């Protein structure tokens, strides 16, 4: 894959990590949300990443490039199937008959770690963007 | 004034000086033609690669830059050969005087 | 064709091609550092360069072999991309590419001088 394609690839990865960060932030913001329009407490969200085949350039089709560069994308945003946390709070408006309130299965420590991971990966891919940009500029320098 | 190149090609009888000069001429002309062919070929490659970079078909920038530089160098070489030929004819003209 | 196509320009051309290609693999690895099950890939740079320079195959078809990297630690989700390794290689490959460009430039300057050598006018 050529260097311009790499800009797009790394840029796409930054976008995916940003989406991941957004989902994590949403989880953290809604850690205490006991009621939602859909009914029930907020459900923790997860992103699922998958490797993405990059678009075939005509040159690759001609066999002039081994088309093995892989980008990444957010395949889906899914809800965590884990059951909500039950806390005994009989006075709470959203308490059920037995006095339990259902809270989102969100662990703040876990979410924070995830967020830091997303930030770090975002920065890594930003570095890759810089690398591609640098090499393109160097290429132009071949002509003095 | 007669074009020196065509007069040599036709084999213009003119004596020893012109004949030996004719031998030398052919060497230069072959080189020049070869250089021109090379320029055409390399320029074509450079144009194709540069276009491929610009229309996003996956050509490496450095590959196109190398092709452009080679085309440019071959052009310079052709000009150099041409200049040498012109110089040689100017010498010959002075000789026949 | 003989004067312009020196062995140096050919070798440097291959070097830059392979460096750029390696960079794309590193970028792919970094892009997929969080993708479950993703395995880091690389090329054997030395081997591919030797193969290209030997001229044993028509290198007009550029097809280096991307292989799986060995000796990496696998995380629970099956991903084995190493942050340290990729970051280091990213910087290194960039630098090598730049060096290749500089050497190529000096080679072209040399050729240019050779062409104009002996120009009296």
Lateral arrangement of strands in the main beta sheet of chain A: 1-2
The major β-sheet of chain A equals: 2 strands, antiparallel
The helix content of chain B, as a percent range, equals over 70%
Helix content of chain A: 40-55%
Rg value of chain A: 22 Å
% residues in beta strands of chain B: under 5%
Please tell me the total number of domains of chain B: 1
Give a short overview:
The complex is a heterotrimer of chains A (144), B (97) and C (121). Chain B has 97 residues and is mostly helical. In chain B, 85% of the residues lie in helices and 0% in strands.
Structural account:
The complex is a heterotrimer of chains A (144), B (97) and C (121). Chain A has helices at 3-29, 58-61, 108-140, and strands at 45-53, 70-79, 85-88, 100-103. With 144 residues, chain A is α+β, with helices and mostly antiparallel strands. Chain A has one domain. Chain A starts with a helix and ends with a helix. With 97 residues, chain B is mostly helical. In chain B, helix 2 packs antiparallel against helix 3. Chain C is mainly alpha-helical and 121 residues long. Chain C has three helices and two strands. A two-stranded antiparallel ribbon of chain C has the order 1-2. The model of chain C has no long low-confidence stretch (mean pLDDT 88).
Task: Please describe the structure with a list of short key phrases separated by commas or semicolons.
heterotrimer; B: 97 residues; mainly alpha; 3 helices; disordered N terminus; C: 121 residues
Topology:
The complex is a heterotrimer of chains A (144), B (97) and C (121).
Chain A: H1 3-29, E1 45-53, H2 58-61, E2 70-79, E3 85-88, E4 100-103, H3 108-140
Antiparallel strand pairs in A: 1-2, 3-4
Chain B: H1 4-10, H2 16-54, H3 61-96
Chain C: H1 7-31, E1 41-42, H2 45-54, E2 67-68, H3 83-116
């Amino acid at each position: 894959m050529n260097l311009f394609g790499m800009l797009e690839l790394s840029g796409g990865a930054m976008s995916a990590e940003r989406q991941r960060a957004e989902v994590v932030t949403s989880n953290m913001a809604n850690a205490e949300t006991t009621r939602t329009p859909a009914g029930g407490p907020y459900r923790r969200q997860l992103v699922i990443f998958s490797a993405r085949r990059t678009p075939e350039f005509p040159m690759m089709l001609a066999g002039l490039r081994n088309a093995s560069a892989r980008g990444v994308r957010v395949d889906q945003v899914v809800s965590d199937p884990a059951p909500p946390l039950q806390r005994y709070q009989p006075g709470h408006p959203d308490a059920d008959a037995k006095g339990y309130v259902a809270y989102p299965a969100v662990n703040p420590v876990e979410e924070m770690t995830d967020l830091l991971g997303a930030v770090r990966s975002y920065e890594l891919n930003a570095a890759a963007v810089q690398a591609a940009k640098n090499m393109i500029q160097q290429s132009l320098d071949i002509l003095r | 004034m007669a074009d020196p190149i065509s007069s040599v090609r036709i084999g213009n009888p003119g004596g020893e000086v012109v004949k030996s000069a004719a031998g030398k001429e052919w060497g230069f002309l072959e080189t020049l033609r070869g250089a021109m062919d090379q320029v055409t070929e390399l320029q074509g490659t450079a144009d194709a690669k540069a276009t491929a970079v610009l229309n996003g078909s996956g050509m490496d920038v450095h590959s196109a830059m190398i092709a452009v530089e080679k085309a440019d160098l071959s052009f310079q070489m052709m000009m150099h050969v041409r200049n040498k030929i012109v110089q040689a004819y100017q010498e010959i003209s002075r000789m026949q005087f | 064709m003989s004067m312009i196509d020196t062995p140096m320009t050919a070798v440097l051309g291959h070097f830059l091609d392979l460096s750029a290609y390696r960079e794309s693999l590193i970028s792919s690895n970094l892009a997929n550092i969080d993708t479950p099950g993703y395995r880091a890939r690389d090329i054997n740079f030395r081997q591919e360069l030797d193969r290209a320079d030997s001229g044993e195959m028509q290198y007009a078809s550029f097809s280096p072999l991307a292989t799986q990297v060995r000796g990496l630690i696998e995380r629970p989700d099956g991903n084995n991309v190493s942050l340290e390794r990729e970051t280091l290689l990213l910087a290194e490959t960039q630098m090598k590419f730049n060096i290749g460009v500089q050497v190529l430039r000096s080679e072209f300057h040399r050729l240019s001088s050779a062409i104009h050598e002996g120009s009296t006018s």
